[in-house]
Design brief:
52% of the residues lie in helices and 12% in strands. The chain has helices spanning 7-24, 36-39, 60-74, 91-94, 123-132, 150-170, 178-197, 203-213, 219-227, 232-235, 242-265; strands at 28-33, 48-54, 84-90, 104-107, 114-117, 134-137.
Length: 268
């Protein structure tokens, strides 16, 4: 398998494909890389984002088999085995972007357990998979869903920027660690870039664009957030820099305000 330029990661992905086939049999439709490995903007600190497509909703026996499989993969020697993150989409759910937000079985980064979550069930993930997804096994992803309308993507970006931002501002405590401080900044760069350009992107693209297009006073915060990406399992346990955390909350408020201005200017 040569899905990525990294032979060691390709070995982990081959294990993922083979063991998922063993767990699901004919119920497996396909597995696709998405995120930065699909967009061609990955590095050694990137999550390995994927979606698996199954012919229908997973029953308890299948969930148990997949959980056991992910527990085994997690113990492989390669560090990439602990950077997998993805969701298991029933084929009919993936096929309709109107079903975004429905919970599907999800494996979080650094975890071995599947939980029901809407984390990957978004129009943006569908767009990335359809337009840039890397098939590890299965049919061309364009055969699994129709094109995602640009208006649908932008509406999703607006709602995520405003709704998530309101949650962060109302109760910053859950985000008060070094990992989430940087995670929030980079995601708000990416989401605002995607809203303005109408094209989903990676965190790297979003951060670079934000440094070039936003008030230059934010450039240092963005650079430090990018530099804090390594070792998330450690940084999530560490307190953030107090000034950077306060600046992050202000940054979120600024992006929310700019988003509302964009909506007013483009509300035809």
């Amino acid at each position: 398998m040569d899905a990525t330029p990294n032979p060691e990661l390709n070995g982990v992905l081959a294990e993922l494909v083979g063991r998922t086939r063993d767990a699901l049999g004919d119920a497996l439709v396909g597995i696709y890389l998405q995120g930065s490995f699909a967009l061609g903007d990955h590095d050694e600190h990137s999550d390995v984002d994927f979606i698996a497509v199954v012919d229908q909703g997973l029953e308890a026996r299948a969930v148990a088999a997949l959980t056991a499989m992910h527990e085994e993969i997690f113990t492989l020697p390669s560090e990439w085995a602990r950077h997998l993150e993805g969701s298991y989409f029933p084929r009919d759910v993936l096929a309709h972007h109107g079903r975004s937000g429905e919970p599907v079985w999800y494996l979080d980064h650094g975890s071995t357990q599947l939980v029901l979550s809407d984390h990957c069930n978004t129009p943006v993930v569908r767009w990335i998979v359809r337009e840039h997804g890397v098939p590890l096994v299965g049919p061309d992803p364009t055969t699994l869903m129709p094109p995602i309308p640009g208006d649908t993507l932008r509406k999703h970006m607006v709602s995520t920027i405003l709704d998530w931002g309101a949650e962060i501002i109302a109760d910053p405590t859950p985000s008060r660690n070094r990992f989430y401080q940087g995670f929030i900044v980079l995601n708000y760069c990416r989401m605002y870039h995607d809203l303005v350009t109408g094209r989903p992107s990676s965190k790297r693209v979003g951060a670079t664009w934000a440094q070039e297009h936003l008030d230059p006073t934010w450039s240092g915060l963005i650079a430090r957030s990018w530099g804090g990406r390594p070792n998330p399992a450690v940084s999530v346990t560490e307190a953030p820099d107090a000034e950077d955390f306060d600046a992050t909350l202000r940054f979120v408020e600024v992006i929310m305000g700019m988003t509302e201005e964009w909506v007013r200017a483009n509300d035809h």
